[in-house]
Amino acid sequence: MKITLINTTDAGGGAPAACMRLLKALLLKGQDARMTVQQKKTEHPKVTPVANSFWTRLIAKYHFYRERVPFMLLLSADKSVNFAFSTAKVGTDITDVEDIQDADILHLHWTNQGFQSTRNLTALTRMGKPVVWTLHDMWAFTGGCHYAGECDHFKHSCGHCWMLKYSYAKDLSYKGWRRKMHLFSDPSLITFVTCSNWLANEARKSSLLKGYRIEAIPNPIDTDLFSPKDVAVNRAKWKIPADKKIILFGAANIMDRRKGIIYLVEALELLKPLYNENIEIVIFGKNKAFDMELLPFKVHEVGLIDSETDIAELYSLSDVYVTPAIEDNLPNTVMEALACGTPVVAFDTGGLADMVDHQQNGYLAEFKSVADFAEGVKFVLNNPSADLSNNARQKVLQNFSNEVVAEKYLEVYRSLLN
């Protein structure tokens, strides 16, 4: 069975990381798997870029700016949603690429930012090959937004989009929804997979995906790489005090409105009188504007971390990983933390409940309740027994390992080929 995964790139965010992990998991199962991307950032031999020359890289960059700049300058309601909406009006035809032509299964992942337009996606799904599409967010079944927030227009026909400066019945979101009506005109052509049960339920509510097969399969993770490390050794390496309670927070971009850092600030304010100087914070990820002085405890900001070995060390040296996200699917950071035996505190939203078992391997706080989020951090810090840590690790081993997830995908592939 020849499987070709398709993603915009192979590193630099949650979806690329998840797609790359699935590629590795399938290879470990002895499958003939490969990955087609627009831009290659790793050295993996099974990843092939479409933009592989000066001219094709220039075209790819042009497509990126052609999609993003008009939206950012003219169409977005404000800066917070500049990258939260994708029109997919431009892209590259990859139907003639060798790995696409030779594949028995085409497996789409995240293809935005100028890689695949809705027209390109339509062409791929009409090649006569079984197509699996793993959804890492809501984009496939909305008029253009990646997460709808409290909006439910995707259940009908979009329009009146809150992310747009010019919002009306037949606005940009409605036009995007209409283009996808053609893409999704035949439920026999695509099988959808969502990374969480929450996203599967949202997809089933959508007007665009009625009649389609929708499965929920989580992302895989390397449980040898992401495993508990020596706390004392790694605190010394990262210059983190051995006698402090360490709270870890991170994201690709910590200022992303979905990641909810403002809720973390308010929760830490509630904890300050209780813990005084006994807590310190470690934060990783891109930060262009957030003032760390707003946090009431000492902060160790380590910036972007490219090495998975390094990030595993940060999880392992921490007492708790916190994610105050208000919209998320199945964040890799939570799975990574649990695999390293680090309990997680999160809001009960999106796919978080698929990973965090309340008061068993972490704490699921009431949605947007700062007080309950603070209670969750207290619960973990005040229960330093090995049970939370062991439960966290076991949750991942039983549900998210390479072996478990790869086999679930192989079952889907076989069902389509049969």
Automatic annotation (TrEMBL):
Segments forming domain Glycosyl transferase family: 234-394
Span of domain Glycosyltransferase subfamily 4-like N-terminal: 102-224
GO molecular function, one term: glycosyltransferase activity
InterPro entries cross-referenced by the UniProt entry: Glyco_trans_1, Glyco_trans_4-like_N
Entry's transmembrane regions: none
Listed name of the protein: Glycosyltransferase family 4 protein
Organism: Mucilaginibacter myungsuensis
High-level lineage: Bacteria, Pseudomonadati, Bacteroidota, Sphingobacteriia, Sphingobacteriales
